[in-house]
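Justification of computing resources. Each target in the renewal requires a structure prediction run like the one illustrated here; the chain below, 331 residues long, is used simply to show the kind of job we budget for.
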Amino acid sequence: MRALSSPALSSAMSRALGRVEEAIRLGKVGLGLSDEVSELLSFPIAIALVSAVGNEYLKRRYALAEAKRAEEFLAREPVDKLLSIARDFNWKIRPIEAPSWHGFLYEFSLSLPDYLRNAAPLKDKKWKLINRHIVSGEVLITRAEIARLLAEEVRRKIEGLLSRPLKEVPAPLVPLVEKVRALLSELKVGETVQLEAGGEAILEAFPPCMKAIYRALSERKHVPHAGRFAFTAFLLHIGMSVDDVVELFRQVADFSEKITRYQVEHIAGERGGKVRYTPPSCDTMRSYGLCVGADELCAKIRHPLSYYARKTRKLKKAKEAEGARGGLASG
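Resulting structure tokens:
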């Protein structure tokens, strides 16, 4: 790693820092091909830099940001090049005679295992197998869709690279590592989510389903769209502000403040049809697979908000009773 101190690599190191900063701030690495040599060399340096910082949130966000960048490049590639790249990932894929279904022009046929492996993490309903056209055990996909699915391969590949511990941080990287850590601290990302910053919300009164979603966010784990919607609507109804809720979701690897704020404001009834959404009922939560660890109180209610209201009253009464006992004891 002594070569990192070479003046010839100073621009590559600068670009590496830029890649990481773009990932943190924007959630996507810019195309930045004005200097192809620096661009090429900056990638392994950026990988080393993120590994050296050792922040799990940053690792996931950086991998996702680079995957988004890769998707833009892949979308421009000709069919032959896309097929070559897909086969490098051992995909079983073949071109087809572009039949049209429901306005879509399909160009590829992809094996079911390859499709499922890469489509599973995607949130949009169009990726669900029930919404796909399957012929002879193969899924029909468009050119844009193959770029998106290949980007998932890129994301996992980068996460794999970042999972390898860096035994020693090269001296030239130390100042860059400190700059990245300072940026993370400045933006308050990659830290433990603190619900208490949200005002009067009482975590102890949360129903088990909402506690589970909160815990997943705190540990920066994936939360499905249905879970995010339910949790957002729940928090807004128990008195948290839009700003408080947006801050909670800042820990998610695919966080975009613009998109998150829009979605939260929409659920709060501040956008669109001005309808304030209510969190799903217990039956709906069960149908989504979001009902976990039901307790005795769950058996007596039909809605998460009812659970919260009852538990809050119970906790307040217990606190008042404890205060009364303390007053008697001191008297």
